[in-house]
Amino acid sequence: MNLRKFFLIALKDLRLILRDKTGLVFMLLAPFALTLGMGALTGRFSGSPQLGISQIPVVIVIQDSGELGQVLVDVFTSEELKELILANLRSDPSEARALVDRDEAAAAIIVPDGFSTSIFSAESAAQVVPVEFYANPTRPTSTGIARSILESFLNEVEIGRVSSKVIVSQLLASGAIQPEQAAAVGAEVSQEVVGNAPSNSSIQLVTGAAETNNIKFDVLAYMAPGMAMLFLMYTITLGGRSLLVESRTGTLARMLISPTNAGYILGGKGFGIFLTAVTQLAIVIGGTSLLFRLQWGDGLGVTLLILAAAFGASGWGILMAALLKTPGQVAITGSAIALLFGILGGSFFDISLLPKWVRSLSMLTPNSWANEGFRILSMGGRLGAIHTHLTVLVLMGAVLYGVGTVMLSRRGLVGK
Amino acid sequence: MGTILEVRDLVKKYNSKIAVDRISFDIQEGEIFSLLGPNGAGKTTTISILSTLIAPTEGYAAVLGYSVTKQPMEVKRLIGVVPQEIALYDDMSALENLNFWGEMYGLTGKALKNRVSEVLEQIELTDRAKERVKTYSGGMKRRVNIGVGLLNKPRLLFMDEPTVGIDPQSRRAILDSVKKLNKSGMTILYTTHYMEEAQELSDRVGVIDHGKLIALGTQSELTAQVGEMDTLILHVGENEDPEHLAQGLRTVQGVLQANPSDHEVALVTPSAEEVLAPVVSRANELGIKIHSVDIREPNLEAVFLHLTGRALRD
Questions:
Q1: Any chain A CB within 8 A of the CB of B135?
Q2: Which among A46, A227, A249, B276 has the fewest CB atoms less than 10 Å away?
Q3: pLDDT on residue A287
Q4: Residues in chain A whose beta carbon is closer than 8 A to a beta carbon of chain B?
Q5: How far is A279 from chain B (nearest CA, A)?
Q6: What's the CA gap between A53 and A76, in Å, rounded?
């Protein structure tokens, strides 16, 4: 019976928030309007790339003698990206950096020698020879786009690396190959990864990862998650605020007087915030998919990321309600936090251009993890590529819900 | 009829402030018991403890033998509460509010539907049940607020100042509904700072001030404490100083108490007729013009005045 009341409270909160016209404007209309505006600015709807972000100059230096360096060049010069990226191949890293310094390029990507070899032989990601990304701070959006494409490529390569290790291990364990054959088989599998060769059943894991040649990039899909997360933080502010409003108007006390466990009441309120956040993200993502044909990517990954992002963000709503005393304080602080998290989380520009301590700080925001997760998915990444993002967001939510609940109980808002 | 509520030495402290100071009383099944006292006397804190919302610092209270601290769920199932504030969702209709709160009390399906219909009829809002609460008048909101408290058919109903801030017509309707509920067998603990309401409704009255229960009994028992005293209310002009007048009148023979408040002074005297002339004469000497005079028979106001030296509205 208590569980029924838990859902009853949550659904009541969702209903009340959906009846709040001002709230609805911020929750749903504003993200749509901003996405629409961005679409117009980027030339996404006109079909004319000249009107928006296009031909981002990126200098690529390949010092790697292996195959992956060439695959990276193929990605940046692919048909899908040719209107967005203007790739400029150079051989000298200093010259590439100089082009960026002179603002003739948005970024330089330098793939050092040994990169491919390290991918095929490294025991862990830490042993892989790092690719250098040299960014132009005066072009934050273009830099962010170039970085996203590079990160997406590296994610796919990493998945391929891990996959080939798994396949070789399985073949060894099953006795299909002998230990002395492992290196040769690994290399063969890796070749298939790079070459996107047709797969057979024994290398199924490889095929998904071998889509590096098919990375697609939609400027709108790059920017829309930032807007969705920005307004999600506003929504969870409404949720946190509702807890204090109920405390003030006496409805919370009335609930506590009913034969209902106090934990279920607070849980129901928290679940209401989560439910509202999920609803908002689902409507914004579903709506932009239908209206603007935005490709958000892998369905399962997007669904799980919506749930995780909503959970991580709504934890902040509970914490705000626990730390602040009045609904007005939550409204003002919540708006400021939504904006701050939007900036730190990369809703407005690429945060890699900011100082390291700011980037570290950004990891505390659900926006940062969710934005990156959505961008990875929109660029063709699979669920495996965002497992860290999902884990961090769920942990963030769990910790914040836990701390918030304890603080609320101690404050006497719920319980005695 | 047995005891439905038992309260023993109840104390509630907030740091050094004592909100409820060792109060004890019983309520018998079927009666209307009023807690009468000014704002801040401790009435709402007492109701909050008895309805399990806050824990007492000391003392014991039980509803039909169930301790409010040790068996709160059993107590919650037996009681209904009408809080002082309008604890409703403004953006939901009366019907939606009643459905929500009904479910919070464990009602579902047909039982919920039937009970909500009964309550809507009781509060006379069936025809406007689907309109949002925010469109209602203050009196209508108060009626829905009461309706929510009735949903679980409580054996004991706590009503915390249910007529605050409403028009006389709505107030009349609420007082009548309290009587009707009591006639149907419901026991009611009613708090108010309106002496007239306590007088009209109550079988017994507890007078509370500064957290202490200073008097307890039927109205006749309480007024007997004042004896055959009369209360004389002198109304003065806006520019006059009631404190100055009260001070001057305390020396008049036959005046036992003189208590100033807004634009008036209340005198307690064995005979209003005998002191009236010297009182008016003394006021003239002080240069204070008396606009009008009320003579009141012994009532709960006089009891409060007699016990505390202050008027109820202070």
A1: no
A2: A46
A3: 83
A4: 1, 4-5, 8, 12, 15-16, 19-20, 249-251, 253-260, 412, 416
A5: 20
A6: 16
How are the residues of chain B apportioned to helix, strand and coil, as percentages rounded to the nearest 5? 40, 30, 30
Torsion of CA A134, A140, A146, A147, to 10 degrees: 70
- The ipTM, to two decimals, is 0.81
Residues B145 and B285 in one domain: no
Look up the domain containing B54 and give its range. 3-223
Q: What is the mean pLDDT of chain B?
A: 91
Report pLDDT digits (tens) over A249-280: 999 999 999 999 888 998 899 899 999 999 98
Looking at the structure, do residues B249 and B216 belong to the same domain, yes or no?
A: no
Question: pLDDT per residue over A177-224, tens digit each?
Answer: 776 666 666 656 655 554 443 332 222 222 222 233 455 556 677 777
Q: Please name the member of A12, A19, A251 whose beta carbon is closest to the beta carbon of B87.
A: A251
What dotted CATH number matches A56-214? 3.40.1710
Contact between B64 and B78 (Cβ < 8 Å): yes
Cβ atoms within 10 Å, residue B109: 7
For residues B67 and B138, membership in a common domain is answered with: yes
Q: Tell me the backbone φ, ψ of residue B62, rounded to 5 degrees.
A: -145, 145
Q: Could you tell me which chain B residue has the CA closest to the CA of A416?
A: B54
At residue A415 the predicted structure's pLDDT band, cuts being 50, 70 and 90, is very low
Residue B307 domain-assigned (yes or no):
no
Cβ–Cβ below 8 Å for B87 and A249: yes
